[in-house]
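quick one
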Amino acid sequence: SSSTAPDAGIDAEDLASFHEHLNKSTRVLALLGAGLSASSGLPTFRGAGGLWRTHDSVSLATPEAFNTDSSLVWQFYSYRRHMALQVQPNPAHYALAKLARKMPGFQALSQNVDGLSQRADHPPGQLQLLHGTLFEVRCMDRGRCGHSETNFVLQAKQQSKDLDISDVKVPLASVKTHDLPVCPKCKQYLLRPGVVWFGESLPEQVLDNVDKFMDAGGVDMIMVIGTSAKVYPAAGYIEDARAKGARVCVVNMDENDRPAGGWKKGDWFFKGDAATLVPRLLE
Ligand code: BV8
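structure w/ BV8:
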């Protein structure tokens, strides 16, 4: 009989064993990283995408960078906000949202701040934003003021829409600090992007939600999609899930990007573009 043509990147046997396990699963996690949004057109952190002008994105995603040069950091985030609103969720974002609607025991743990899962109508109760989102902005004075707002329109003044200021050849207008967004509530401190910077702790509520999920029983599977799994505590959830009985399914372009803690019998690795593979895996 004519066998179905094997999918690019998907071994038929692996696909069958994955589907068999998924169909028996009731409690599933997915750790999502920048690779999930790569096909939508957003650069990833590592590799070529990791550079913004001459800066390593990681070095800009810190409180120190913001205190040293709020203008540069706001221009970095303003550009990323602008970019994220220019692109669309891809089929993988939609497939994960569909899985959430079908499986109440599914939780997506997203490291991404691009808002694409939200725009794919992923049920908010099943989407844990581990590192916040570009579209929340909040007062620098978290203690006394604590103002926070959802905001899609704020632009760091300097940038005209068509300037690709990620290109180091494009001169970066110098934006004076007094041109940066000030908290509308206390009117004393700058607003900052509502993301978790390196050295900052993850949102209490989100940590609590994940702990509650883990404490509620075993975990049948964790999918690790488009992430280099190097940033903690996010990456730590992979081993936590394993400890609760989960099998691990990695979806990544790069076969070298496997979670720390090694490879276990029964794990799956599907090499390729998340936007193509994830819908096939979750169909
Ligand atoms: C914390 C939001 C402590 C901002 C991000 C020294 C000082 C302080 C802390 C530390 C330190 N040393 C270590 C730490 C801990 C640190 C950490 O883990 N550092 C790493 C670098 C070692 N962690 C922290 O600081 C965390 N906080 O520890 O606080 C604390 C505790 C209590 C009280 C006070 C403090 C906070 C970390 C959060 C940082 N914020 N993002 C922003 O976005 O600007 S992290 C950011 O980078 C992302 O959110 C993500 O988490 C990470 C990037 O990783 P990925 O998403 O995996 O993306 P990447 O580019 O790396 O990989 C893409 C992958 O996709 C690749 O594997 C590629 O092959 C694959 N791919 C590409 N295309 C595709 C694809 N796959 C499929 N399809 C494709 N098409």
